[in-house]
Amino acid sequence: MDQGVVKTYDPVTGVGIVVRDTDRAEVFLQPGSLAGSVFRTLRQGQRIVFETNEEEGRPVVTKVRLGQETY
After folding, report:
1. Start-to-end CA span in the chain (Å)
2. Which residue in 9, 16, 39, 51 has the most C-beta neighbors within 10 A?
3. What pTM does this model have?
4. CATH of the domain at 54
């Protein structure tokens, strides 16, 4: 699981951008990423924990959990 901060999010389309903590890369947040979550929307600056998959040669967020994991 990765951690990062929401840069943008459109609640109508479910699309957004997350800045990953480890390398500051912008990762695409695909529609449906919040499916199964108790949350319906995200806000700019919100810290999230997320899973990614590789699609078309780039990482995309596939599942979101709110909060922060500690190591």
Report:
1. 12
2. 16
3. 0.85
4. 2.40.50.140
